Amino acid sequence: MRSPRCKAGPQGATAPARWPWHRRAATKQLGRCALLLTAHLFATPAAAQLGGSLTLSSQTRLRGQPISDHRPVAELEMVHDGDEGFYLGAAAALVATRDEGLKPLSFRPYAGFAKHLSDAATIDVGIVHNRYSGYSAINGGGSYTEAYVGIAGRHVSGRLYLSPAYFLRDAPTLYMELNGHLGLARNWTLVGHAGRLTFLKDRPDSYAGDATDWRLGLRRRLGRVDLDVAWTGQDGQHGAEGALVIALAFAL
After folding, report:
1. What are phi and psi of 24, to 5 degrees?
2. Mean per-residue pLDDT for 150-176?
3. CA-CA distance, 231 to 192, in Å (whole number)?
4. Burial call 30-49: b when 16+ CB within 10 Å, e when fewer
5. Cβ atoms 246, 58 nearer than 8 A
6. Most buried by CB count within 10 Å: which residue of 8, 47, 151, 206?
7. 100: which residues sit within 8 A by CB, 6+ positions away?
8. Does residue 194 or residue 210 have the better pLDDT?
9. Is 25 helix (H, G, I), strand (E, B) or coil?
10. Backbone angles phi, psi at 33, to 5 degrees
């Protein structure tokens, strides 16, 4: 998710082992949500600022864990930057499954408010809903909602995410993340991320538990295209093996 003024880090979290949804029902609901919010974004007045990106990735990771079965993913994100710092956006992703072709993977609507504190700092607050279909690594699909607050500087940004029901009822969590970037040479940037997921109550047995995730990589700017090559992983109870993830992001 990215706001017009404060770029966020990767979304998602350690996934539960099972979720009591059927694939067909979850996928249909995912599609309806995507169509409704996309229609709203494109219906904004001409004076509003509308931007976005199309990202092609070798796979998608959910805070360190593989969520697309190690399969390629395409994600379209659109953001409406309104007046007085308010913004509204959504991202929808498709996964290239092994046997069924392209299928819906996830849908992520969000809304928030960003305000410049100075030339070098921006504060950001908002809410985001993450929904995954049965074609994700979450058995049967699943969803959760988080409120967030963060601050971004020139090279470093941080956010706190609070979810009251993390994939299941009565499973509150806190996720903390720190993101940074450092220019190395013309059009070359070192990028990094570290995050920590904490359950605020005793977790269900089907959950992986508290976990730390990370990502470290290089970004190459090619005109309106960013090429990212990063190593990412996680150290939770069911922590995934590290993997090299390659992504191309096209600015729209």
Report:
1. -65, -45
2. 95
3. 10
4. beebbeebbeebeeeeeeee
5. yes
6. 8
7. 135
8. 194
9. helix
10. -60, -45
Contact 6, 152 (CB under 8 A): yes
Residue predicted with more confidence, 48 or 181: 181
Residue with tokens 């004076």: 47
Q: Domain segments of the chain: what residues?
A: 23-251
> If you ran DSSP here, which 8-state letter would residue 20 be given?
S
| Domain at 23-251: CATH code | 2.40.160.40
Q: Burial code of 87-106, b = ≥16 C-beta within 10 A, e = fewer?
A: bbbbbbbbbbeeeeeebbbb
Instruction: Name the residue with tokens 């913004």.
Output: 87
Distance CA 156, CA 9 (A): 11
Averaged pLDDT for residues 141-154: 97
Question: Which value, in Å, is the radius of gyration of the alpha carbons in the chain?
Answer: 17
**Structure confidence by residue, pLDDT tens digits, 208-243:** 688 999 999 999 999 999 999 999 999 866 656 899
